[in-house]
Amino acid sequence: MPRAVAIALVCALLPLTAPGQDWANWRGPNHDGTAVAKGLPADFSQTRHVKWAADLPGPGAGTPIVVGDRVFLPSVDRERQCLVAMCLSRKDGKVLWKKDAASSYATDGGGNPIRIQGRSNYASPSPATDGKRVLFFYGNGDLVAYDLNGEEEWRRNLQKDYGDFSFQWTFSASPTIWEGKVFIPVLQRDDPVGRRAGGKRRRGPRTDEAPETSEAIKSFLLALDPANGKTLYQHVRKSPAQVESREAYATLTPFIGKNGRKELLCVGGDVITGHDPATGSELWRWGTWNEGHRQRWWRLVPSVVVGDGLALVCAPKRAPVYAVKLGGSGAQKEDALAWKSEGRPNLVTSDVPTPAFHDGHFFVLSDVRHALSKIEAKTGKVVWSIELTRDYAWRASPTIADGKVFLMNHNGRVVVADAKTGELLHQAPMAGSEDDQIRSSIVVAGNKLFIRTNTKLFCIGK
Known about the structure:
Elements: H1 3-13, E1 50-55, E2 65-67, E3 70-77, E4 82-89, E5 95-100, E6 115-117, E7 120-121, E8 128-129, E9 133-137, E10 142-147, E11 152-157, H2 158-162, E12 176-178, E13 181-186, E14 220-224, E15 231-236, E16 253-256, E17 262-268, E18 271-275, E19 282-286, E20 305-307, E21 310-314, E22 321-325, E23 330-331, E24 337-340, E25 356-358, E26 361-366, E27 371-376, E28 382-387, E29 399-401, E30 404-408, E31 413-418, E32 424-429, E33 443-445, E34 448-452, E35 456-460
Parallel strand pairs: 19-23
Antiparallel strand pairs: 1-35, 2-3, 3-4, 4-5, 6-7, 8-9, 9-10, 10-11, 12-13, 13-14, 14-15, 16-17, 17-18, 18-19, 20-21, 21-22, 22-24, 25-26, 26-27, 27-28, 29-30, 30-31, 31-32, 33-34, 34-35
């Protein structure tokens, strides 16, 4: 084998981003919910092992990102009823800058600039950075780029440019920065949401120019230039799904195969597809978990997670998880499925949280079963499964570092489990007893934990 080819194959097997001390996007340096760290405490609380705690102006499901000496996160400002972009000092949590980020282009149909419905808000997507600038995306379609010092570089609204979103719930896919481009998937239903008889609108399209027919509403992948926000391409993604089953809230996952082929993995609309990041063209697709596309209300939330040459897809509600073989081309047949979870009522499943991958295993957090399961990636064998409390939902995605799994429920209760054995090591209430709807995943950067509640951002470390 020529030396250049051998080097290329070795590089393809390496992580997309070298493990480091930063967490630059929603699912971390390898887009799989894991980080390299040592000495993370397992016995923390709201006062113990707290390096600092910063007050937040309101809630937001957007996970913080940590880059260099800065922490970036979106939030709603409850008092002022607006959406903000924030930058905190990584050292002490002090606010370095705070910007009113969102425009007034799109509201929730009732004039509310921050909420669509009580269970979520527009500050749900996580920021992303290329090291030069940080991008904030909001559920109303506003996409804003700031340099690291808080100077606005550009902004645009995707609903204004491409038509009003058609989602039943709050749109929340996070931007992915890869290969010198910004990628955002808009996988939506092909009919306007909330339209009542007589043309009155409850929610969804909000302008006179909104599409009136299904032919005008498309699902697509968008690629932008991070330097100026200009569109590089818009790839229409077709789907056989119906109604709400066309909707997806998942973020695109980058992947480099053994042959060096680069792909963006996109899930939703009853199928998983791989796309060329240079053009957006579809390389392959597999599906479906919705036989005959009979289920019309199977919107999809979890993103794809990759491990051991497989893409793990979590079908909605209480359906199985599916491990699909990577590396194919065109329409994939049944033999592309490596395995799927079996065995009710203890079926491994996840409706909202995105799984993590670590050391040859998928870690699947089930919000519908209130359980965390460790799955052997190659075979689908359940290594262990632990039950969690049922008083609040577990919808923040799991994070793995330092041999530990970190989980948080809607009430801000953090659970720490041993990644090898599943032993519960610690539980810590990190919010008030009345708190609810906390959704941000826990971040690990520089041997520190960053835990976001509705009112605080904690930096935890020994």
